[in-house]
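Regression test case RT-17, inverse folding.

Input:
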């Protein structure tokens, strides 16, 4: 078992990628503390995973007391903390015209500031066991789309934080900090969001080649599988690294032959 006896804190762990990570961690021998915003969903997940291997805490991670509460939950329930997965995210559209101050403050609070504060609160315990942090970013961190301006900025900030802390914390505290940047993932919320935007119920079965050469997008379970390496001792001394989980290169991509023509017609 790759995570035997480890205790992992996962924010945004009630649904989607976070839930998949929690389930995979338990399968690999870990105990988990999951966080989210809907109490009933958290209770159901703990029941599914088993009360002896999972605990939950329903709280908004941007609340000032939240980081300490999350860490204390892990320590009081399981006696230690080996890893933090900063997975919780606020995803919403905005561009140069529509981005307003309250909106971008909330975006940065959830996606950039809260993860930093959680690492800060967890650091003494992670240092004691030479633990690790895994930040869940996005390929949009590299620039993003025109209508994901604020979100892309927040994930770019998270990526810079990973690079910075991955160096300083490993040197000073023995704590590894790494990040994965998933591409388009088929979560429950993504299915619902696209339906609300007017797309057909099974939109994910007909993804254009430009977005998915594999004719499909990622599943949460595939992202969770990739997380195991970074959370396990197999990762060794690797720190301060960012890995993109995408179907195509971010630079030097070979666009379909008919893409340019169809683009000009629009």
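Golden output:
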């Amino acid at each position: 078992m790759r995570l035997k006896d480890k205790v992992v804190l996962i924010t945004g762990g009630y649904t989607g990628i976070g839930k998949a990570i929690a389930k995979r961690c338990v399968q690999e021998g870990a105990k988990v503390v999951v966080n989210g915003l809907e109490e009933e969903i958290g209770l159901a997940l703990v029941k599914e995973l088993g009360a002896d291997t999972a605990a939950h805490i329903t709280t908004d991670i941007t609340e000032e007391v939240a980081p300490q509460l999350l860490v204390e939950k892990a320590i009081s329930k399981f006696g230690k903390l080996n890893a933090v997965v900063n997975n919780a995210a606020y995803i919403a559209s905005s561009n140069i015209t529509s981005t307003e101050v309250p909106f971008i403050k909330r975006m940065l609070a959830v996606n950039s500031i809260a993860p930093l504060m959680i690492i800060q609160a967890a650091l003494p315990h992670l240092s004691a066991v030479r633990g690790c942090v895994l930040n869940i970013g996005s390929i949009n961190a590299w620039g993003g789309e025109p209508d994901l301006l604020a979100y892309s900025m927040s994930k770019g900030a998270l990526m810079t934080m990973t690079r910075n802390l991955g160096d300083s914390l490993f040197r000073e505290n023995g704590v590894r900090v790494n990040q994965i940047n998933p591409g388009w993932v088929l979560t429950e919320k993504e299915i619902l969001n696209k339906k609300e935007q007017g797309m057909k119920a099974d939109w994910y079965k007909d993804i254009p080649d430009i977005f998915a050469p594999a004719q499909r997008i990622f599943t949460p379970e595939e992202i969770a599988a990739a997380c195991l390496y970074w959370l396990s001792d197999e990762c060794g001394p690797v720190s301060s690294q960012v890995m993109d989980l995408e179907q195509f290169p971010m630079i030097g991509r070979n666009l379909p032959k008919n893409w340019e023509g169809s683009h000009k017609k629009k």
